[in-house]
Amino acid sequence: MVGYSSCMPNWLESLLGEEFFTPCMVHETMKRNEKNIFCLDCCSSLCPHCFPHHHLHRLLQIRRYMYHDVVRVEEFGKLMKCSSIQSYIANGAKVVFLNQRSQANLRIYDNSCLFCERSLPDQYIYCCISCKANELLRNGEGLARELKECNILSIDECQFTTESILESPEASSSSSGGGNIVISHKKFGLAGTEASSRRKKGVPVRAPLF
């Protein structure tokens, strides 16, 4: 993929323009048919049932975090440099957003994304992959220095149906060193609630008779 200088490669343009987590029309009658895989060789989104027909292709799993599409830095970093894009930590792995998100008027940081001007920690200059790609094309630098050659990109078939959603109603965020946002998922046990509900009532003490 190295060599694109004045335009966006087809796979990247398709990835950023694709709508994920929608039902697969090929397998619309089957369960778990949400499209959460992207095939770089076919430039199309896939559902887990499409996987067997593309298992020899370069595949990228798309995950969902805060109602937006993200990819793991460990995986997407094989295709494009991600160090300048703001990252988050979810389920123990760094992730970056594919596209821009709506932003509040409140500015938390003085620094901002070079393309969309979203408020960012000082060590980052882009808020998502699309902003980085569009800014490099807009200013004439191109993407050649940022893209990497990647002939093999596979995913674990056992994981892409269970780890695609990184958010939960119980998730709570807190700032972490290095500008990453850490998401912690609390697991509430039943022992505490059950113990209190099953706790025996004390033996009533009668008032003294006069």
Write down the Rg: 23 Å
Structural classification: alpha+beta
The average pLDDT value, as a whole number, equals 80
User: Number of DSSP helices?
Assistant: 4
Q: Would you identify the regions where 5 or more consecutive residues have pLDDT less than 50? A: 1-5, 168-178, 181-200
Q: Which outline best applies?
A: flat
Tell me the strand percentage band: 15-25%
Helix content: 10-25%
Number of distinct beta strands:
9
Euclidean distance between termini CA atoms: 96 Å
Strand order of the largest sheet: 4-5-7-6-9-8
Q: Characterize the largest beta sheet: strand count, sense, and whether it forms a barrel.
A: 6 strands, mixed
Order of helices and strands: HEEEEEHEEHEEH
Care to give the gist of this entry?
With 210 residues, this protein is α+β, with helices and mostly antiparallel strands.
